[in-house]
Specification:
It contains eight helices and twelve strands. By secondary structure, the protein is α/β, with parallel strands linked by helices. It has one domain: Rossmann fold (3-Layer(aba) Sandwich). The strands form two sheets. The chain has a seven-stranded mixed β-sheet, sandwiched between helices.
Length: 237
Amino acid sequence: MSTLASTSLDDADADTTAASAHGRVSPAKVFAVALTLGTLTAVIDGRGTHHQLPVRSWTGRASRSDRFLLDHCHGSTIDLGCGPGRLAAELRDRGHDVLGVDASRSAIAEARRRDIPVVCGSLFDPVPSEGSWGTALLADGNIGIGGDPAGLLVRAGRIIRPDGRIVVDLAPAGTGLRVHQLHLRAGGLASTSFPWAELGPDALPETAAAAQLTIAQVTRRRGRTVAVLTHAREQGR
């Protein structure tokens, strides 16, 4: 899981949704509080399972594990669900042309403080240079955004160029494909629920095929499983 607010309303809408069902607020409002407090919990609805999310690492610098992930990015890279911009900053420092996209205005503000080029909006909105990016990056479990990994891969495939790649941060082996409704908690606030998915390498072949993508590579190192996907028509070239 990553900047889960990427699936939700932006902060401009948060105040108008504060009186939502059961007194809950928008995920973006909770995420904004979490960025300040440095703590965020995701709760899977119906099971009550709590996951403490690593907010402080999102606002820090790229780790060794992050750098392993980013080694798979080639050329110009668009970071889908960039959050506060730690990975985009590392890519920029490596010399990549980079753009971050996130729906959370709080996260976008943090990324801009790092001098990262960013766009605030849904991953399903048109992006600059659509169809010409060398790499689309789905890090920190962002393949789960919207609860439909295959649909998100189809979208990412439209963002990259024909010989481009999609780099996906996967859940551990054995996870399969899990789709949840969950909500966020921080600073005494609870968000409205939204869909999220987890995708492990064991469910990747079926998911990639549904998106008409080819699995070019799956590697595991430093506790991270990373997949590289390409357009199916590139396999024979």
